[in-house]
Sequence to fold (407 residues):
Amino acid sequence: SPETTVTVGSQTYARDEMTNVTPHILSKVGSNLHNRKYHPLNLLKQRIRDHFYKNYVKPRGNPIFTVVDDLPPVVTIEQCFDSLLTPKDHVSRKPSDTYYVNKDHVLRTHTSAHQSDLIRMGCDQFLVIGDVYRRDTIDKSHYPVFHQCEGVRLFTERELLISKFSEQDMEGLTVFEQGPRIPAKQAPHTQDAVVLLEADLKWTLTRLAHDIFGKDIETQWVDCYFPFTHPSWELEIKYKGEWLEVLGCGVMEQEILNEAGAGNKVGWAFGLGLERWAMKMYDIPDIRLFWSQDSGFLSQFKVDDANTPIKYKPVSVHPQCYNDISFWIPDNYTENDFYDLVRGLGSDMVEQVELIDNFTHPKKGQTSHCYRITYRHMDRAVHQEEANKIHALITEAAINNLAVEVR
Ligand code: PHE
Fold:
């Protein structure tokens, strides 16, 4: 019954005293904006994926990074926190900050929750993209559901050394030692290992940032702390005159690798928020827009090539209304004739015209088009009656000027 269980997607969990997920938040699970065609988060996901596919390849050209983007967001406390060495009293575990499904399960607060499992499965280089959940207020830059891209790269001693040294110069260098844990390194790592991992990590992420934000972007590195990496850094970019944090990263805690059966390897990890990147990249002013169903927003991202430069243009705050028109087209008809006709009559009251159905009658051989016309003015409300009047004018003009046969 609903009082004793919580259903998330296709799974049902026992409700208990820790349960704090709300129907509103549960309604977002399964939206998978990052996998929705033409969504800006999907375009960004493609850009990041293609960057790694193109720039990191094996000798025969196949990509080294595996991309995982369909892991469900309910994870265990073990996956989300314990496997990542998050202290028992860390704020991220608090029910005030995290959505608990019950005492054993949460909506993941970060994609790092999948690091251990994927390493245990034998993945040495991977990206994880998914929705993450944090209890937060709703404002222009915070929303309780957002999306992250995690990246992990592991190296054997040889793989790490060969990236910078010749066979002879490698002689005598090691990545493991039993030394002290100091701000610069973990106990089992050599200074040399950290220098190489840090250089590779920072080079990889700077290159990604330049690919996504442009070559001219200014970047800087800031030291920081995560329970699962040491040392750790944040990357900041200069955006509209201010330094903005865009990702966290670091040298993976060796204990995590040891526990996951990769004790002979060292590695780095990073995590970035897709919304934050997309807001800078496309000039999207409000994080809530990613959840908009409004075609005035979505239509601006309808590009088949994810590399198409897009700058978002704010749409009207007034509501939309729409009307459809269907007609049989004559032989010499072209779609642009109709678009011009609509622009001429609708002027600034028409926000969008979309061909939503294109059908050829099997016997008659005649083709019918159906267009959806979305009416909205930038600075005043357009009511349905007014839209209907313009729509009637458009219909009449299409019959008279384009010789179409309205259905
Ligand atoms: N999981 C961290 C976060 O959500 C980001 C991160 C990932 C940091 C991997 C370091 C390594 O803030």
In short: The chain has a mean pLDDT of 94. The chain has twelve helices and 16 strands.
